[in-house]
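User: Can you fold this complex?
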Amino acid sequence: MSHDKLAYMANQIGRFFQSQKAGTAIASIEDHLRKYWDPHMRQTIAAQLAEGKIELDPPVRAAVERLRNEKPV
Amino acid sequence: MPMLQEIDYGTPPVNSAAMVTLMVDGHTVTVPEGTSVMRASMEAGIKIPKLCATDMLESFGSCRLCLVEIEGRGGTPASCTTPVAPGMKVHTVSDKLRKLRRGVMELYISDHPLDCLTCSANGNCELQDAAGEVGLRDVRYGYEGENHRTAAVDGSNPYFNFDPSKCIVCSRCVRACEEVQGTFALTIQGRGFESKVSPGMNEPFLTSECVSCGACVQACPTATLMDKSVVEYGQPEHSVVTTCAYCGVGCNFKAEMRGDQVIRMVPWKDGRANHGHSCVKGRFAWGYANHPDRILSPMVREKITDPWRKVSWDEAIARVASEFKRIQAKAGKDAIGVITSSRCTAEEAYLVQKLTRTAFGNNNTDTCARVCHSPTGYGLGQTFGTSAGTQDFDSIEDTDVMIVIGANPTDGHPVFASRMKKRLRQGAKLIVIDPRRIDLVRTPHVEASYHLALSPGTNVAVLTALAHVIVTEGLVDQAFIDERCDTDAYADWAAFVADGRHSPEATEAATHVPAHLVRGAARLFATGGNGAIYYGLGVTEHSQGSTAVMAIANLAMATGNIGRRGVGVNPLRGQNNVQGSCDMGSFPHELPGYRHVGDPAARAVYEAEWGVKLEPEPGLRIPNMLDAAVQGKFLGIYIQGEDIAHSDPDTKHVTAGLRAMECVVVHDLFLNETANFAHVFLPGATFLEKDGTFINAERRINRVRKVMAPRAGLGDWEATQAISNAMGYKMDYASPAEIMAEIARTTPTFAGVSYEKIDQGAMQWPCNDSAPDGTPIMHIDHFVRGKGNFVITEYVPTDEKVGPRFPLLLTTGRILSQYNVGAQTRRTGNVAWHPEDLLEIHPHDASERGVRDGDWVTLRSRAGETTLRALLTERVAPGVVYTTFHHAVTQANVVTTDYSDWATNCPEYKVTAVQISPSNGQSEWQLSYHAHAVESRRIEAVAADE
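Assistant: Here's the predicted assembly.
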């Protein structure tokens, strides 16, 4: 998965949840990524974000930052 | 096994609560009011001779053979057209009746060939039977008069002959085409002696409007319309009821056999999904099972550039196990995975996902539903609480308004489309939401009230605009919402859709649908009575596929159209067992029964049953597997009954992923496109060689019964079991029934399912202690999730945009005579109707590009290009082009992109920005791909002494 592809997919998810009830976006994005993304993908995007390789929309960034603390698979 | 002989009651059953008692030949019989005397008599066990009557058709009263006498009434009325009355006394036998019937029969036979011994209907001819029943012994008129016995046979249809010399002009074929199929392709041409059955304007069957559904052949009482297979092989001697392996309607058929040879497939009258009807695929296109392209031996090779080498099953299975174990040792347990098949049985899908979760030790299982209805799973799960259509097919009989969005039922789900058309002819209203003018928009005696010809990719905008009208004009069903739905979520949603930016007027610029049509359609749906929504892949295969499914669910809830007959949200599933493969835990995040792998209670059920610790994290989806393969992290895959190199989008990326893997195992009937990149080929079994179940679009668990032994020696489930055993996880099922027993033990919605129970009548899940006979209609008193959940559906335009380089929008789909990648239908007579994929283009767009009808054109997108012939048609709007993906030579998915649904990664097949230009040859990709395919399909010759 290219850097851009994971970031693109995450931002797509973010766009949906940002339109939902105010104040729920970050938790909903995080929940979606945990439920549907393989842990390798989650770790990869978290690492990419930490390394400054990708651009994420603000709530997506916040959600992905929460994934950083996951244990490696 | 005997031939299954269905009783023909002569006229259809009547649904009436009032009952009428009468006497037939001294026998008392009680039937629903409105029943014909003919049917009542048959119910009493007394068969009245007949020719023009059959219980699939309304009575017609033309043959005058079924005359009876009724005490107190004059004359000899036709029993098929005479309704019963209380206290009626009917006599079916008398000297007078005998003379009348013989006289009628004499006239028929005076103009009928007397070649019974050599006739293809010999042994199964209603005319012959009727002649025997009336005691015909001679024909006073002779046979030398003017007659039709030299009329020429029309053999143009690949599957049946039309021999007018044997026609008795009973009109059963004409009426079947009208009443059952709804095509109106046949008529009686001429009057009196000149009367004859005519396809269209006296055309050959093949080039007429006939869709070859077989209803006329089934209805014909003589050999006039006869299967060519019966002409060639003779009458069958036993039959087995099984389920079609094409679309998600799930038609039951009698496989009529002679030994282990299929003679013909005849739709089963008691089939709960099809009620005795069929389409050209299920009825006729089963010959692929014996096609010479079938691979019947396992094969292996070191590299994909090597020729295949035939090996024993043991060697092939050992190779799979050793390669997968080697890869896991080298790259980790997550470096391999599987794709289960919606073509195979539920039991086989269950076994493949179990193989992954036990023998492989990961959750890398996905299924072809990823690329079709995965958004249905997400969307209906979020709104209603479970991933399934809400109704049975029979529900449509009570529908007053139907919305068909992103589906083309007459091509994709033809048997159910006939039910739809019948209901529409009875007066129900239709709203079609589709970029193309699909056949349902205007077909004989059916015309949509509204066709919202939206721009591809704008479903969510249109659906939200419909909701805007319903909310702002006060058309919601507030009582339903208050009682059944989450009212806070409703309030948020209602405020959202009421915003002026969602009005039809505001969205018209994006959707290209005139605002007044959206308003009219919304008012009709909300106020027209029972409203049902049917949708297909034109909804799901978008970057907002899941959002659109939720928008559909919102509409149904807002109008109170959930939880009773005639209403509901109904995904039309593309393949025979899409529902079943999803039910069986084929997705990487779900165990069977749609329970998330992260749910400790669900895992505990399977950990106890399977004796292994299960992974609590979701695995890779198909696109993620391919991405990981390109990155060198995913190296082995077992693909059962799926051709991702043909069916999945962005072919170049798919094939790059497959090439990057070290062990690709393809388990299929033919060397399909994916097999070009495989290292092990396992020969699969057709549905005729399987035992198990297919679960159709209405959640019905239909039995699939083996009519012949697996031609390659092992059933698909046996091959999967062998892989598992070779990898060290013990499986020892003796039969698919044992697999179903395990499914029932572990899956609450299947707790009451067994083959014995299905044999009493195929039921719909949930089937358990709460619903022992299954659940025809879901969400009756409450939603599975409790309160219905309204979800906000903000329209987000796709990033696949038109521009100067790619100014047209391509959308793809399938056609009646072909099926998905065409692996089966291309190997049948169905190629007579669709020998190649064509590009539908509006004449205006074609003219601007100098393209004429039939020209070769290059179809180019940002992802790739291919060539195919152009078909100029106004079915597509200017700016939109359309093609099918049935032929590997076209490689239509070279053009589609890797954009996908935000929630599920379901590909956005339905929107690709393209350009069209005249062409004089195949694309570079097609040429190089074809060269690779030829090389890849080489099979080493086996020495003669081996």
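Chain B touches chain A at residues 334, 363-364, 492, 543, 547, 588-589, 596, 598, 617-621, 624, 627-628, 631, 633, 791-792, 794, 796, 898, 900, 902-905 (CB under 8 Å). DSSP finds 29 helices and 35 strands in chain B.
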